[in-house]
Write a structure and sequence with these properties.
9 helices; about 250 residues; alpha+beta; 4-stranded antiparallel sheet
């Protein structure tokens, strides 16, 4: 009986330890998303989403190429345009039903105050990619949290707010309207589909200058950290190849 009791106790310890390990792997960084933030919140559509209206449509204008590419290929597609050769492109976006609020957001968007979130999300995603499917905190140790925090806190220089554009479309993932929140002034079938405005702001950064700033973030994050040999190797590896792969 004592032997059976000991087995049961050991089993409970192992289960409890396993739970702790799983929780440790899934705990998000304080103040940051649980998963590395994707570039923008608008999903990539293939084909283009059904667009009901867009900026300049009434005057006979067309949807710019960079907007079409962003919807179908994300920011990487915009960067491949000849117009942005030698630059990194970042797209700030906001989605909602309140046109006036979105116009105010677009006007108030500041490259100095608001760009850090876009840059940090991209840096975080690159570090996560370098972790090859493992939780980055386990691969890089304290370097991951230190680098992401510095990326969010950095005041980036040389960022250009180039242009903006809005479209009104029917996103496939917009949840149904809550009772009493239905958008007014729409036809019945449109109201049921929850059309929304998407405001986009295109920002650019020269590659050499931006890369130097990111390298400074990574170097600063690594300073004075106590890393294991495997963590040190992983950090050095991702730093050396940071801009060689898709960034």
């Amino acid at each position: 009986m004592k032997f059976i009791g000991l087995q049961a106790l050991l089993l409970l310890v192992l289960v409890f330890s396993g739970c702790l390990l799983r929780q440790r792997q899934e705990i998000p960084l304080p103040g940051f998303p649980e998963e590395p933030a994707a570039e923008g919140r608008i999903p990539v559509f293939k084909p283009m989403p059904r667009i009901l209206d867009y900026e300049g449509k009434a005057a006979g204008g067309e949807i710019p190429e960079w907007v079409s590419r962003y919807f179908t290929e994300a920011g990487a597609g915009v960067e491949r345009m000849a117009e942005y050769r030698g630059k990194y492109v970042f797209i700030g976006e906001n989605l909602g039903a309140n046109l006036s609020a979105l116009i105010q957001w677009q006007a108030a968007f500041s490259p100095i105050q608001d760009f850090a979130q876009l840059a940090a999300a991209r840096i975080e995603a690159r570090l996560a990619k370098g972790a090859a499917g493992s939780y980055p905190d386990n691969v890089y140790g304290p370097f991951f949290e230190a680098a992401v925090k510095k990326a969010y806190d950095t005041k980036y220089q040389g960022i250009q707010k180039e242009k903006g554009f809005w479209v009104r479309l029917v996103p496939p993932e917009i949840p149904p309207a809550a009772p009493g929140e239905e958008e007014t002034g729409l036809e019945t079938e449109e109201a049921a589909e929850r059309p929304a405005y998407v405001f986009l702001i295109l920002l650019s950064a020269g590659r050499p200058d931006f890369e130097a700033q990111v390298e400074g973030i990574l170097n600063s994050a690594k300073a004075d950290l106590s890393l294991t040999r495997s963590q040190e190797a992983a950090v050095n590896r991702v730093r050396e190849s940071f801009f060689n792969e898709s960034f």
